[in-house]
Amino acid sequence: MRHFPSATAIAPVLAILAAGSWAAPAAAQDTPVAEIDSGLGDIIVTAQRREESLQDVPVAVSVLSGNTLDAITSSGSDVRVLAGRVPSLNIESSFGRTFPRFYIRGLGNTDFDLNASQPVSLVYDDVVLENPILKGFPIFDLDRVEVLRGPQGTLFGRNTPAGIVKFDTVKPGKTGGYARASYGRYGTTQVEVAAGAADDNGFSVRLSTLFQHRDNWVDNIATTKAKDLGGYDDIAARLQLQYENGPFTGRVTGQVRIYDGSAIIFRANTQVPGSNKLVGLGGAGTEFERDKVYQDGLNFQKLNTYNAGLNLEYDFGPVTAYSITSYWNGNFRSRGDIDGGFGAVFLPVSGPGLIPFQAQSQDNVPSLDQFTQEIRIASNNSGGLGYQVGAFYFDEKLDISSFEFGGPTDATPSAIAVQRQDSEAYGIFGSVNYAFDNGFKLQAGARYNHDTRAFVASRPVETRPPFVVSPNTPVPPQAATVKGKLLTWDASATYEASDALTFYARVARGYRAPSVQGRLTFSRTISTADQEETMSYEAGIKTAFFDDRVRFNLTGYYFDTKDLQLTAVGGTSNVASLLNVDAKGHGIEAELQAAPAKGLTFSIGGAWNVAEIDDANAFVAGCGSATPCTVLDPARPGSPGIFSIDGNQLPQSPKWTLNGTAGYEFPVGNGAIYAFTDWYYRSKIQFFLYQSVEFSDDKMIEGGLRVGYRTDRFDVAGFVRNITNDESPTGGIDFNNITSYVNEPRIYGVEASVKF
Question: May I ask which residue range the UniProt record assigns to the signal sequence (predicted)?
Answer without folding.
Answer: 1-23
